[in-house]
Amino acid sequence: MLEIIILIFLSRHIGKIAERKGQPVGKWKMYTVLAWLAGEIIGICIGLLLFGPEPVYMIVLVGLPCAFAGYHIVRNTLYKYPDSMSNAEHYIDEIV
User: Fold this and answer.
1) Closest to 66 (Cα-Cα) out of 48, 87, 89, 88
2) What does the DSSP assignment read for the chain?
3) Taking the complete model, does pTM exceed 0.90, yes or no?
């Protein structure tokens, strides 16, 4: 349950960044959710290989950082895009 709340918060954060960059918001939110799930699945597989099926909490402790890694990959990819022109004009008006 807590993961869903965190994922909603992170998707909103990515949506704000995408809006500032002039990118489609829904597309980047979808990428965030997919990267989170892919990272978590990869982390769970790694945890199963390392610890076996018995200590479930250890598997989750490996899966969550991998899920956050997926989020950070999407965030860093989005940060590489330049800001949209409307935001650049807003910053110029703010300076002058």
Assistant:
1) 48
2) -HHHHHHHHHHHHHHHHHHHHT--HHHHHHHHHHHHHHHHHHHHHHHHHHH-SS-HHHHHHHHHHHHHHHHHHHHHHHHTSPPPHHHHHHHHHHH-
3) no
User: What does the alpha-carbon distance between residue 76 and residue 17 come to, in Å, rounded to a whole number?
Assistant: 11
Amino acid identity of 65?
Answer: P
- Helical (H) or strand (E) element with 53: none
Distance from C-alpha of 44 to C-alpha of 50, rounded to nearest angstrom: 10
User: How many residues are listed for the chain in this entry?
Assistant: 96
pLDDT per residue as tens, the chain (96 positions): 788 999 999 999 999 999 999 899 999 999 999 999 999 999 999 999 999 988 999 999 999 999 999 999 999 999 999 887 665 566 665 665
